[in-house]
Amino acid sequence: MPRSENYLKKELYSLIKEDAKIFEFLQSGATDGMWYWDLEQPENEWMSDRFWTELGYDPTKNSHHASEWQDIINQDDLQLALENFQKHCDDPNHPYDQEVRYRHKDGSTVWIRCRGIVIRNSNNQPYRMLGVHSNITALKESEARYRTSLKKIDHAYASVKLALEESERLFEMAPDANLKLDVRGNIIKANQQAEELFACPRNKLEQLSVFSLVPLAKLEKYQQAFRQYFDPCYTGDSLFKKSLAILDYAGRPLTIEVTLNLIPTRAGKIALATIRDISEKEALIQSLQHQLEENQKLHALALSDPLTKIFNKRHFNNMMLEEHNKAVRHQQRLSLILFDIDHFKAVNDNYGHDVGDKVLMQLTLFIKQFVREEDTFARVGGEEFAIIAPFTNTDAALTIAERIVEECAKHPFVINDQQQINITVSVGTASLSSTDKTWSPLFERADKALYQAKRLGRDQVQVSAIF
Ligand SMILES: Nc1nc2c(ncn2[C@@H]2O[C@H](COP(=O)(O)OP(=O)(O)OP(=O)(O)O)[C@@H](O)[C@H]2O)c(=O)[nH]1
């Protein structure tokens, strides 16, 4: 059955005709507003209550004049509505359907979709018009929000595109050689600096594995480090920075500093390798290091005794100054132990100078066991030695000195596995006095005590009386 012939619909038509209450009920319940316009007297137009309530007005106060809505409609939209009205009158197939803006009583804008059909008389002349108003403000607002979001997305997309272009430009223009590497180390992309560094045109570089530029001896180590870096379980620094030894395309060795940066892409992770040639810098560092080591050796030589390898008189003087100052500043004890081999001339005379040298060397090694780390042990004369002993008072210095005398007397020095030589030593000790302005008085007192030990028969310790 065609829709218009449905019996219930027909029944509803007649009900509306017969009973105005039915129509009232329908229009009050409709979500859209209704209007009915007298085209013969266009100032008259009936509008359902909903139209006015949607615009914030009291419907009981309106007088059904077309001027009422024409005053609050946006004037551009009114023009559009009138143009459409004219077209619809001329051609019934032209829909009267437009979205227009009304001014709400509170000043805000209300969007209304306004649709209508012209009703014609028996002469086919339009004489009435029936229409509906739908409030589409919420729809318009969400449309506007959607457009704003779209704009933001467009903007973000444009920024990302720009950033990508910029990073491509930076990749190319960077002062360093740049390579993009895949997970296996294949070179995907190279910039101009890379061409120069590896002395290889870009189209060839981009067909190589980076490992073809690694010296054989380092290959396994570098491959392992590279694999580790790409491993998803890798927990080390995300920025990999190392100095590496590699080769250029012609096989010439280069020292480079490489920074690897992992970049996730749609096709998987790639590494951006930024490479700087530090061959010259490395050579310079090595030469400086060599120089430094040489200087340190020279310095050590300048402060040590060539025969016994312990400190010489010059270093002894420096350390006396330093330890004296420290002891005065921190009010600490300081003692000096001087000892001298007894009758050493006889050793030289009896066994020869070379044997005498060996005795000096062996004695030095022997005495080292009585010297603490904080002490300074030095050869201050031909067969004369000194121990600067910080934090050591007179009694403690005497104990050390007596031990040296006793142990030396007991210890036979065996030279060339055959000659056994017994020696004794004489020792003089002195301790820092509060009246000592410099380290010289301390030295002089220890020297006097040593002289005294010699004078009193050698093989003994004498302690300086002043302390
Ligand atoms: N083999 C050797 N002998 C040295 C060295 N330096 C100094 N002498 C010797 O040490 C001896 C020191 O002799 P003297 O000053 O008379 O003293 P001494 O014979 O030890 O007698 P007293 O010190 O009085 O017990 C000299 O024979 C020097 O030649 C050295 O580097 N090697």
Could you explain how this protein is built, in words?
The protein has 467 residues and is α+β, with helices and mostly antiparallel strands. The protein folds into 4 domains: 31-135, 2-Layer Sandwich (Beta-Lactamase), CATH 3.30.450.20; 139-165; 174-282, Beta-Lactamase (2-Layer Sandwich); 304-463, Alpha-Beta Plaits, CATH 3.30.70.270. It is built from 15 helices and 17 strands. Helix 1 crosses helix 2 and helix 12 packs across helix 13 (353-368). The chain is elongated. The mean pLDDT is 91. Guanosine-5'-triphosphate binds at residues 307, 340-345, 348, 353, 356-357, 360, 382-383, 454, 458.
Put the structure in a nutshell.
The chain is of the alpha+beta class and 467 residues long. The chain is built from 15 helices and 17 strands. Residues 307, 340-345, 348, 353, 356-357, 360, 382-383, 454, 458 line the site of guanosine-5'-triphosphate.
Topology:
Elements: H1 7-18, H2 20-29, E1 33-38, E2 45-47, H3 49-54, H4 66-72, H5 75-90, E3 96-103, E4 109-120, E5 126-135, H6 137-173, E6 177-181, E7 187-190, H7 192-197, H8 202-205, H9 216-230, E8 239-247, E9 253-265, E10 268-277, H10 279-303, H11 313-330, E11 334-341, H12 344-351, H13 353-368, E12 376-379, E13 384-390, H14 394-410, E14 412-415, E15 419-422, E16 425-431, H15 440-455, E17 461-463
Parallel strand pairs: 16-17
Antiparallel strand pairs: 1-2, 1-5, 3-4, 4-5, 6-7, 6-10, 8-9, 9-10, 11-13, 11-16, 12-13, 14-15
Domain GGDEF: 332-466
Catalytic activity: 2 GTP = 3',3'-c-di-GMP + 2 diphosphate
InterPro entries: Diguanylate_Cyclase, GGDEF_dom, Nucleotide_cyclase, PAC, PAS, PAS-assoc_C, PAS-like_dom_sf, PAS_fold_3
